[in-house]
Amino acid sequence: MRNKTLNVVVGGEAGQGLVTIGQLLAKSLVRSGYSIIAGQSYHSRVRGGHNTYAVRFGSDEVLSPEESIDILVALNEETIEIHRNELAPSAIVIADESFGIIGSSIVKVPFKKLDNARVLNVLAFGVLGKILCLDKELLLKIIEEFFGRKNPAALQENNQALEKAYEWAAKIPPDFCRLPPLKNPPSRLMMTGHDAIALGAMSAGLKFYAFYPMTPSTSIGQTLAANANKMGMVVEQGEDEIAVINLALGASYAGAPAMVGTAGGGFALMVESVSLAAMTETPIVIVVGQRPAPATGLPTRTEQADLEFILHSGHGEFPRAVFAPGTIEECFHLTRKSLELAQKYQSPVFILSDQFTADSERAVKPFDLDSLSFVQPGKDASPASLPYKRYQFTGSGVSLRLLPGMSEHLVIADSDEHDEQGHLTEDLSIRKKMVEKRLKKMDGLVSEVIAPEFSGDKDPELLLVCWGSSKGSVLEAAADLRASGEKVCVLHFSQLWPLKPAQFLEYLEKAKTAVMIEGNALGQMSRLIRRETGFEFAKQVHRYDGLAITPEFIHRSLKEAGVR
Asked: Which residue, among 486, 522, 492, 520, has the nearest Cα to 504 in the 3D structure?
């Protein structure tokens, strides 16, 4: 699979325009019909620090990032030194002619002679586009869309810079036109996982979103805010995470489908109100963008270490559901599912994302929106009798939910234990019934659990198990192993709680060797599965250095673990 792709990395300091180059390239490749995965690596600072923007692309579906670099665009000399050992044998480096580097694989570009420093990123994009044999007219159109038409002089300057770069790069042999141009490229969208979460929420009928800016979840709020007026939503930036979740609970109580976004450190402030949502049976969806911790940790890196925190957050016992999407499509559909379940079972529902999901851009087919439904909070008041029992005991644990002010009935909510009407009570027999009522809703949540996705050989020698954002890398690693003659399969969990062992235990027990792969140090998902089933993984692969799991990392780790 890997020899059918190219991996382009743009490196430099924050503020040098490397993200612009990467995004222009990614958009051009998607328009040209290629599959891509693009992502950033950056320091937690406004300027300075070594940053990269990587775009891996191919004519077939690209599932994961890659460590080996085919083309390195170096905006400073430090980039070459940092990534020298990652260059593929046939790689080339695009750099300014003033850099003190030598080698036959170096394309020295006279950027300062071609044009002024203001358009350095467009010049680099033009040279790169020519080397990759991309259509110049398409690139000009992408530039116009990217920079806009509001400043004709700036647009003309950028267009001229691209023309100069193409003209200069025409003398370079087209050695890197390795991937043939695609005829009749399909129409696809380029988006990140957090773009898809925002779109999924809007398509499901989200009406209120609150957040306090915290990497990597901030992008969800930014996307929703940009579409708030068009979609009839309220997007509120609160003064802190405590205010954020309570704002959302208030909106949800009043009938607005609500969601909040945060990271682990911000969610730590929300946990008391998670219990409030459970006690008042108020629907809420919480997106937690995982990043390395404890404390502030590594704000701009990735990890999968908040699962146990989410599972046990909030005091007391109450039902919840936890999802962890592994693809752009899963981000979209699982967000919709989360809003639906939260409304249906009047419980908190969690989506576990991470920095890799937040920043990775991919090409996806446009979603079919016409066939989708949206949540409608509140019920017809006609079945309710006086006095209205908001927390009436039912066989399912789910009570008729009316919205305050929308009928003749008085809707009462209390954070203390309460009776069926909602009035505070210290009757211990009612307390026992209320606990059991709330827990009954878990039966409904269990009935709707999404089974883990199984792919590969039916009777494998090696079963690779993963969850969330590592899906693509694990699938690619498994494909590599099958290509070498091994019988390998993959089991990916996109729903982490509740679990139904009947859906997956047989796969674990049949495999000769089962390996859990996850981005944390303690094996949180493997511990959860052991707790629920008694199954013990023979081997585990953990990554907790802040970097995304890659196929190369998996191969190295399996070898170190004695699996290969």
From this structure: 492
Decide if pLDDT at 46 tops 80: no
- 3-class DSSP assignment, residue 195: helix
CATH class of 2-169: alpha beta
Question: Given phi > 0 = left and psi -120 to 50 = alpha, else beta, which region is 476?
Answer: alpha
Q: How far are the Cα atoms of 33, 326, 477 from residue 64, in angstroms, in the given order? A: 18, 11, 9
For the record, the structure tokens of 406 come out as 């929308």
Residues 6+ apart with CB under 8 A from 502: none
List the chain domain ranges. 2-169, 191-364, 378-448, 453-560
Cα 220 vs. chain centroid, distance in angstroms? 10
CB 211 within 8 A of CB 220: yes
CA distance 375 to 337: 10
Q: What tens digit of pLDDT does each residue of 205-238 get?
A: 999 999 999 999 999 999 999 999 999 999 999 9
CB 72 within 8 A of CB 11: yes
Q: E strand or H helix at 130, and its extent?
A: helix 120-131
Compute how many other C-beta atoms are within 10 angstroms of the C-beta atom of residue 84: 13
Cis status of the peptide bond prior to 216, with omega within 30 of 0: yes
DSSP sequence for 196-231: HHHHHHHHHT--EEEE---TTTHHHHHHHHHTHHHH
Q: Quick check: do 191-364 and 453-560 share a fold? A: yes
Rounded Cα gap, residues 170 and 166, in angstroms? 6
What HEC string does 241-256 produce? HHHHHHHHHHHHHCCC
Domain 453-560 = CATH 3.30.465.10: no
Residue for token pair 């670099």: 69
Topology (CATH level 3) of domain 191-364: Rossmann fold (3.40.50)
Q: What is the pLDDT of residue 2?
A: 45
Q: How far apart are the first and last CA of the chain?
A: 20
pLDDT tens, residue by residue, 147-188: 877 788 888 999 999 999 999 998 887 666 667 778 888 889
Closest CA relative to residue 286, chosen from 344, 349, 342, 208: 349
Instruction: List C-alpha distances in Å: 231 to 199, 221, 224.
Output: 11, 14, 9
Q: Find the DSSP H helices in 448-544.
A: 471-483, 505-510, 524-533
Query: From CA 197, how far away is CA 371, in angstroms rounded?
Result: 18
Sheet with 234-237, side-by-side order of all strands: 234-237, 208-211, 258-263, 284-290, 348-354, 321-323, 495-497
Contact at 8 Å (CB) between 388 and 421?
Answer: yes
- HSE-CB of 191 using CA atoms within 13 angstroms: 23
